[in-house]
């Protein structure tokens, strides 16, 4: 049985994280654009937020598994406070270096904080009653996050229009401070007594442990692939779509409002994702989402009017909104409880890989052929890739759906663990 108070704290902490993240990311892109940087350089600067975290995702996963979500959220949020102060310093004096350092630290802090919040939700989901109980919990977890993703862009647009970008950075720092306070209330896990010095001793072995998890757990690897493909759409919406709207004459408040329309679609769709998985299967939902998102990118090539853009953003938000609950459910169901920290961190790493490559690729394409045609080319790549994945899945059994059906057919505690090899010297610590 779940402790209601612990769930509320977990949901509130995730809301704070996403409110700050979804407010900050599009405004940072607009800040760089307002400073006069080219789209290629803006893409490179935005990718900096994710580049370093890609390198440290596996160690972060091991840290979360060892010290527990509570301590990991505290450390991650504290790092985000420092990054927020650097954003403020750079915004006040128009210094680019503090903002770039803030981008790196924010990426590292969010890697720990968000990874730990996901791991905690995954652990709770695996102890849920059999059937769709865990699906519902994770769908509701993603639903609460989507509420913050709705308010974040709108709040950022209002603050930047009626104040300035520095005000956005100050509010982000305050959100991070509140997240530090809430970290003390997150339910403790069985690993909460671990020490950070234990982690550092086997830090490098975490890479081998993460690679082993992906090599020996095909279901989990497939979940990461699907998650990464859909996250391309999510990242474009948060990074280059605001610039697209700004370039065709929309104010920052209008940009934030438009992004919030997409977030409304996420709010609407996410509570039903668990039910849709049971009815339609994950394959149809995810491939269909890629096709709908690609159609939205193609529609933007023609620079339609306000109401058509609004409809496109709503459809885009719905298909992009499916990604988080779908990925959380698949990772939670294909990775053992004691490895949820590593599993969720690798999911975050897949997102960060997209956040590194996506801005650079689209920024380069946009500089060469224009942003609107760049959208069309990315849509074409997504359609080709989704067709290839769909063909591959038809040629062999769907391991993810088999795994989830087996999970739903029995009690979670009766489930046999997946054949994952733990790095030498780590097994005795994971069983404490």
From TrEMBL:
UniProt entry tagged with the keyword Protein transport: no
GO molecular function: transmembrane transporter activity
Superkingdom of this protein's organism: Bacteria
Membrane topology: Multi-pass membrane protein
Chain segments annotated as transmembrane: 7-24, 36-60, 72-89, 95-117, 137-159, 165-186, 224-245, 257-277, 284-302, 308-335, 356-389
PROSITE patterns linked to this entry: MFS
Compartments it resides in: Cell membrane
Coiled coil feature spans: none
Acidic residues: compositionally biased ranges: 398-408
One GO term describing the cellular component: plasma membrane
Name of the molecule in the record: MFS transporter
Organism encoding this protein: Paenibacillus abyssi
């Amino acid at each position: 049985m779940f402790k209601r108070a612990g769930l509320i704290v977990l949901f509130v902490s995730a809301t704070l994280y996403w409110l700050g993240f979804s407010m900050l990311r599009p405004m940072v892109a607009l800040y760089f654009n307002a400073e006069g940087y080219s789209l290629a350089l803006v893409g490179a600067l935005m990718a900096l937020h994710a580049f370093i975290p890609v390198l440290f995702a596996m160690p972060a996963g091991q840290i979360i598994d060892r010290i527990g979500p509570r301590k990991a959220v505290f450390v991650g949020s504290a790092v985000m406070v420092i990054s927020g102060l650097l954003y403020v310093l750079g915004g006040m004096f128009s210094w680019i270096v503090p903002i770039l350092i803030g981008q790196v630290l924010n990426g590292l802090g969010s890697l720990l904080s968000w990874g730990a919040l996901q791991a905690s939700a995954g652990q709770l989901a695996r102890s849920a009653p059999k059937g769709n109980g865990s699906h519902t919990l994770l769908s509701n977890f993603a639903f609460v996050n989507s509420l913050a993703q709705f308010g974040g862009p709108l709040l950022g647009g209002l603050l930047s229009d009626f104040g300035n970008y520095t005000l956005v950075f100050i509010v982000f720092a305050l959100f991070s401070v509140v997240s530090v306070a809430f970290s003390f209330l997150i339910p403790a896990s069985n690993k909460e007594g671990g020490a950070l010095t234990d982690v550092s001793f086997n830090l490098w072995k975490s890479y081998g442990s993460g690679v082993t998890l992906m090599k020996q757990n095909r279901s989990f690897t497939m979940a990461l692939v699907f998650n990464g493909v859909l996250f391309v759409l999510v990242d474009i919406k948060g990074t280059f779509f605001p610039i697209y709207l700004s370039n065709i004459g929309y104010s920052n408040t209008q940009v934030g409002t438009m992004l919030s329309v997409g977030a409304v679609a996420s709010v609407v769709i996410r509570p039903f994702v668990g039910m849709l998985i049971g009815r339609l299967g994950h394959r149809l939902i995810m491939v269909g989402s890629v096709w709908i998102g690609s159609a939205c990118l193609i529609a933007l090539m023609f620079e339609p009017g306000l109401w058509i853009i609004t409809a496109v953003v709503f459809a885009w938000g719905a298909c992009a909104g499916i990604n988080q609950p779908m990925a959380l459910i698949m990772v939670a169901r294909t990775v053992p409880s004691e490895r949820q920290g590593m599993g969720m961190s690798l999911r975050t790493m897949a997102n960060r890989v997209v956040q590194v490559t996506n801005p650079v690729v689209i920024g380069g394409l946009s500089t060469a052929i224009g942003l609107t045609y760049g959208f069309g080319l990315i849509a074409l790549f997504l359609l080709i890739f989704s067709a290839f994945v769909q063909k591959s899945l038809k040629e062999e059994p769907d391991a993810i759906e088999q795994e989830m059906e087996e999970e739903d057919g029995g009690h979670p505690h009766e489930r046999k663990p997946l054949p994952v090899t733990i790095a030498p010297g780590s097994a005795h610590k994971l069983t404490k």
